[in-house]
Amino acid sequence: MARLADYFVLVGFDHDKRGSGDGQGRIIQRFPEKEWEDNPFPEGIQLFCQPGGWQLVLERKSPNFLVAVLTDINSERHYCACFTFWEAVESLQPQQNHANVTDEEDSKFIQAPQLFAPKSLVLVSQLDHTEVFRNCLGLIYTIYIDCLDFPLETVIGNLLTCIVPITGGSQRTISLGAGDRQVIQTPINDALPVTGCSVALFLKQLGINNVLDLFCAALTEHKILFLSSSYQRLTEACRALLSLMFPLKYSFTYIPILPAQLIEVLCSPTPFIIGIHSSFRADMQDLLDVIVADLDGGTVVIPECIHISVLPEPYLIQTQTALCMVLDPELEYADYAFPPSSMSASSMKFQDKEIRAVFLHLFAQLFQGYRWSLQIIRVHPEPVIRFHKVAFLAQRILLDDDFLIKVLDGMAFAGFISERGSPYRACDLFDELVANDIERIRSEEGNPQKVLKHIKEISEKLHRNENPYPAVAMHKIQKPTEGSHLRLQRSTFPQLDEGMVQWFIDQASAKLKNVPPAVKVEMKCIVPMGHPTAAIDRNGIVLANSARRLEVVRNCITYIFENKLLEAKKLLPAMLRALKGRAARQCLTQELNLHVLQNRAVLDHQQFDYVVRMMNCALQDCTPLDEHLVAATLLPLVTAFCRKLGSGVTQFAYSCVQEHLVWTNLQFWEAMFYNDVQNHIRALYLEMECDHLTETGSVNGEREQKSALGVAAEQLRLWPTYSKEKQQELIDKEESTVYSQAIHYGNRLTYLLLPLDTSKNRLLRSTAIGDMESVSNSFVTNSIAGSVAESYDTESGFEDAETSDVANSVVRFINRFVDKVCTESGVSSDHLKALHANLPDIVQMHIETLDAVHRESKRLPPIQKPKLLRPSLLIGEDLVMEGLRVFLEPDGREESMGGSVGGPSILPAEGAIFLTTYRIIFKGVPTETLAGEQTVIRSFPVASFTKDKKISPHLRAEQEPQDRLQLRSSTFQLMKIAFDEEVGSEMVELFRKHIHKLRYPQYVHSSFAFTVGQSVKQVMEPKQKEKNPSLRTMSKNIMKNAKKTIGRQYVTRKKFTPPTLDQRGIPAHGDNLDQISVSDEMEQSALTLSSTIRSSDKSTMSHMIERACCRDYQRLGLGTLSNSLTRSKNEPFRITTVNRMYGVCRSYPSLLIIPQTIQDSTMQRISRCYRQNRFPVVCWKNSRSKSVLLRSAGLHGKSVVGFFKSQNAPTAGPSQTDSTSLEQEKYLQAVINSMPHYADTGGRNTLSGFTSAHMHSSDSSDKQRQPKIGVLIKQVMGGKEDVPSTFSRGVLGNRARVITLANPRATLKGRESPQGKWGSIRGSGRLSAYSLNADVGIRLAGKETLSLQANGGPSDSHYFRQQRVGLYIIGDKSQLKGAKQDPLQQWEVVPIEIFDVRQVKNSFKKLMKACVPSSACTESNTSYYHSLEESDWLSQLHKLLQVSVLVVELLDNGSSVLISLEDGWDVTTQVVSLVQLLSDQHYRTLEGFRLLIEKEWLSFGHRFSHRGAQTMASQSSGFTPVFLQFLDCVHQIHLQFPMEFEFSQYYLKFLAYHYVSNRFRTFLLDSDHERIELGLMYEEKGEKKSQHIYKSVWDYIDRLSKKTPIFFNYLYAPEDGEVLRPYGNISNLKVWDYYTHETLSEGPPYDWELVYGRREQVDDGERMDTMAPQTHRKIVWPCYDNQNKTEPDAISKLLEEMQMLECELGQVPGKWKETWDKIKTTQRTESMQEGKHLSSSSLLISSSLSHHRRSQCVYLHEAAVGSTLNLSLDTDSSTTSTPSSGIMGRKSTSTLYSQFQTSESEHRSYEGILYKRGALLKAWKSRWFVLDKTKHQLRYYDSKSDVDMKGIVDLAEVESVTLGTVAMGAPKNIEEKAFFDLKTTKRVYNFCAQDCQSAQQWIDKIQSCLSDA
């Protein structure tokens, strides 16, 4: 029984504080004035009466009612029912004139006063009877407002003295003495919430998903805020949310109605559920961590920073489905044709209970079996119970579920365990559900009807709990008359007689004193445990584990303990893999337990090692929560398994498994301790019960099956029957049990925390311990551990010991553990002190024991380790350090693991790391037993080493290595090595120092290419003796002579007269080409060699003439050099020797090509304008268009300012800057004049002369040859579609004009207007320096509409003849800012945005990490494709190819091009080389490509040493692979044009590898000048070459090419004059397999002697052993073997077999090239005899070649004899038919290349018409089908001539081809056997042929394809 109301309060507006801002309320009267002892009066109640604030209003409002909830300091909730009405405020001016009052005295309604003040009637109660409170307060207001004849004091006195029952289901009728009657219904069980209709209303307001979000947010302790314009709705919503959480109780801040004055509570850091009026919505903007639910709008706003853990599946979807069925039962039958008529939603009250039943059903599923995870620690005097969270989650297979983990860690669940954990208490509906209905719930999953039926049953119980009686007596409550609140009140609410009210209270109190106190009878019982939870997953399916894996575990353990160690060793790797599964770990512990006898198992050394390794593996491969379970089962075993090391010295397994963090986790030890205490408490009472049963003579067979909670429940039931002595005895026994376990666990902690080597304190260096210290300290309330630990240092006598730090840290940790568990378990303080006092001695004794074990373990013979394999070395390669034993660990490359692509894992491998003068080599064998016969080799050149990094220790199953290193190489190799324990740290550091010393020598001549064959000691010395002193001396003399010669040079200059405007516009002809007269002295100096070069330098010049670049210049016709150095005046270009002593530009070659008319004397001045003095020189000439390609560096920034002055600036005279600029302009004009078709143009090649007449006057042949250069320029420059019509041309004139063309077809008048705007393009946020916009592209393209093909190339149709510019200058946008150009000049600048070397360097680093990751990627943003995209490597290749194709187009169209980028030795070299490679087929041969690299990269001074960081001086600059980027571009072109290159892809990889390997001297140093200084240029002359040591990579390639065709491309069949135009879009580019491929069987395949030479030795040895059985079967591992070697191509195999046959016949083996040429010649002759018109000699190669750009090398010849199919391999000009008309001849290669997307070039094995049935509309349509055996596809088109595919069927997905049946809608008059079906993995295709024979042919063809695959 309880009081219905504790206090009645009258609260009114405080007029005294009216002027101080917001109004306030004050308590006018309170009854009773004296507080109840059991329920003090809550303070601040006036705030909740008016939550929006006390305010005066202008009109009277209708009374309102709300219930606020206040929580006191004891967490007790008080319900404040507030009834508020408004009274008129008395006038503040009494002298106011009353004459205005009307005479209508009898009127009931008058004009309302000006102001009204609120007044509240408040009831404060501990009971939640909202409707009763509303009725009672409404009755009081009715008596007042209607002036009823009932004293208010009597009504209030009766209200305060009304006593009602709390629970039991009884009804109580009450009356307040005003003719009223109310019935109060109590619930049957007050533990269940009473909700009325609030939950149903809550779901109606917010919806299912929003309510579930709030439900999960409340359970996971988030802040929740409700908004509504109704205060009562806020209270109802908060009540509903709390009732949904039942059986959990919300324990944080709960304020359903928050007053405005307390709004700062929303900033509280703790979780809360708060309601606030929606008028304060604007104040919620700053709340970033609060979930806001708008009840009126039905929305829930979750901030982005908040992540709400949702219900695990399948519970979420089941709950949503159940709620849908409850709220909308008609949904299930909505689509029925005849829906049931009786289906309708329940009433709000019943629906409310059904919703609650759904959530109660959910909690029963979530918490099923929770009682089996309760740990009872103490039974008497009060039960102490803990919840074993890890065990519960493990039973449910929910160890990784975020939602349930957070719920179990929350305070609500802690209160749930505290309230419901007791085994003997009163039970409710939830206990029945979770214990008895779980089996039913499991069986009903998946059946919504059964689930709904069960929910209805639960809801009926909930409804019956609130409404036990169906018939309720009628209420009788007086209500005020309608509109009474607007009536004029003559007086305010009366002052109540306090004495009279108190008299009623005293009378009631006196009566209650005589009544005996009501005792609440608690129906206690033993709480049912329910069924133990089986291991079920989230889908409710029992986890099925592989029986084979468990069998492997059992067999391996059996072999170990039966001493069959060889068998165990074979099974051990498979077992370690199996231990990654939970079931296998459980099986391991079970099997090990079987071999423990009397808590001890003594093993020999090998058995001990195996058992320890398995324990470590089981603890290593699991999640943290799973680790707790494994460690719990292994804890008894690690103290049982041991081995004897000597007399009296025994080593236990715990000393070898201490490296796991679980042993330093305080929560793990607590759970283990409580579990053991529970077992001992259970055993204690079971033993007592057994003794009792023995005395009485009865035996209970079920005694052993009782759970600990069952035993405890029985003891709690019997507790009141025991005597005090018996009770005290039980308390003492329990306390002793806990104390003994605390001592036992003190020893266990000591075992696992003290390391075997006590010098290594694991506890101190563990970060987890520091965190756990702070956590555990919060649990210790009155600990004495601190004082004991402090006194230990001074009193124990061990403070001087070396291990004091170790002992102290262990003692402190154990003290914290003991404090916590003993305090919670109720251990006495005396026992706790004794325990603290004994711990230091226990620790120290164990330390002494471990010292003996450690000493003896060091004396053990080492475990037999694999023999170290020595690597094969090159001739001249020496070991620097002997092999260090290491483990090669797997990295992020799955291929190197082996297991991912089939077969056993190859890595990790055990072996040794070797350091030689040339390489870093690992050689070893896999640790995997099944792969142990293989050899693993991984190496890379020392010179390619880029970075080493120490990596953190990784826990291994065996002993932990000391150090781990990660070595990365620029050859895309990575080594993660873990040094064996036998390798000391000092050896590791020495190894690293030697690597750095070899990688970065002080001088370049200390690298391997120079020191090869010398002793190692010489290599380590920083200085080295000069190898060729005579050459070195000669080089120094040359440089001295050069300086002297430069000092004596003088040139006679004539005054330069600037030409007039007309002269500059029209270039001269004949002898007048040169506007600046040439010095006579210069003419004479160029005639003979002896005239300018002294006799001491003649030999040097002879060498220069023999250089590759000179041979190439003569081939191109750029200049001829005879012995007398004579030259023809008619040649437009000449070879100059101005740089012969490298005086003009040190990074240029000695001989250069310049225009014929340019004097050598001007070159020195021109060169100063360019960076590094790299002035423009000619490097290639187009033999057809006579255009030339020039290269230079970019202009100097300072020079640009001097070059481009304002044309109106006054000048005193011609300055040096002016003359230099004019000479430069003359230089460029000379280049333009060198082209014959520009010498006679009359100067009209400007845009103004480019009329429409010119556009349409071109012939058809020109139209076909002109490309759309404008498209390419737009792509290169990044131009946009909408561009201004202004343009700029050129930058190099200092008297430039600016013109504006509003119309592209401007006439000559445009020249007369000097004013205008300077056109510019903005790129990357900066102004273009060259200021060229897309109109240049429009003009170049002939003003036609620009379009692109789908593949990114230019369109091939509608070409117009455009007016060409003489010279295009490709330059950086960052150059020549503010420059102006004369429109009459005949050159034009194309500014482009190109990457710099820093971007290349960064891109390469990211590319290496993408292709060779150090660890496996776990996130999507670190995946391979994401990392590849981040690197931008392919984007840079795309840019290079794009620029190169543009230059090729310009050159091919007759315009010369100058590449003027950066310093002229990086991007310039890349572009120039690619342009020549694309334009000139000579450079696509082996000899030509070598010549190209020697000329453009070596002679023109690419900084190989600097970019490769080859010395200590360039170490800081880092590695920048500019040359590798060029090779990658060549690789991309090679892929698209495989028949145009004489060399193979291996050739490119070989160069990519060896240009950084430093094995050869070719790619050392930065220029010819440096090579001459070091004596490298001409040292081969007269030197005796070693047979095995090569100084030049070219000599090595030549020698190797004679022996093997490894560098030759068998598909080589070039066309004369073929210009390649590759597609550069990123979608057309492929990642080079050089970056990703490796061969673990033999290492990098680029040192031929090591790979192929060793194989020949092995083959010879195998041939000698003729008696051994031989087999031709080979097993090839993609990740291990060299596939090109083990599976060679057909031609290489045939050539190899021919050589073997020749050897067997006793013949001298012929060279492969001769054999190849002989075969080609023979076939060509035979083909000609047969009368075939061949364009090239042919070989019948298999049609399985990949689909290349030349239409799979297939030529279709249209001749009189018919079409022939040939595969071209070589070109023979004598047999090529060239019809004059050009119509009957074969298509050109370029045409064939551009047609690779059309139907003519597709693979069509079989084709014809079929009817196909559609998948969507089921209609039959006629299609043209093509069966492609090569691509393994079945394609179909609309018609035979259609080139656009309508669809494709991948034959790899086809399962069967069968005859079909006639289907609906099929074509008529078709026989049944003409139908057939094609079944794939996705769908079934229905086809119909014209007849049955055709259908059978299709079926046979498709089945043939399937069988071939």
Key terms:
38% helix, seven-stranded antiparallel sheet, 13% strand, globular, single chain, alpha+beta, 1909 residues
Question: Looking at the chains present, what oligomeric state does this protein adopt?
Answer: single chain
Assign an overall shape.
globular
Please, how many helices? 62
* Classification by helices and strands: alpha+beta
In helices, the fraction of residues equals: 25-40%
Largest β-sheet summary: 7 strands, antiparallel
Strand arrangement in the largest pleated sheet: 25-24-23-22-28-27-26
Compute the CA-based radius of gyration.
48 Å
Number of strands: 46
Average predicted confidence as pLDDT: 75
N-to-C span: 87 Å
Strand percentage lies at: 5-15%
Low-confidence stretches: 93-110, 535-545, 764-803, 955-961, 1016-1036, 1038-1099, 1122-1127, 1200-1214, 1239-1267, 1279-1362, 1580-1585, 1656-1671, ...
Describe the structure.
This protein is of the alpha+beta class and 1909 residues long. It is 38% helix and 13% strand. It has 62 helices and 46 strands. Strands 25-24-23-22-28-27-26 form a seven-stranded antiparallel sheet, with helices on one face. Strands 43-42-41-40-46-45-44 form a seven-stranded antiparallel sheet, covered by helices on one side. The chain has a five-stranded antiparallel sheet with strand order 3-2-6-5-4.
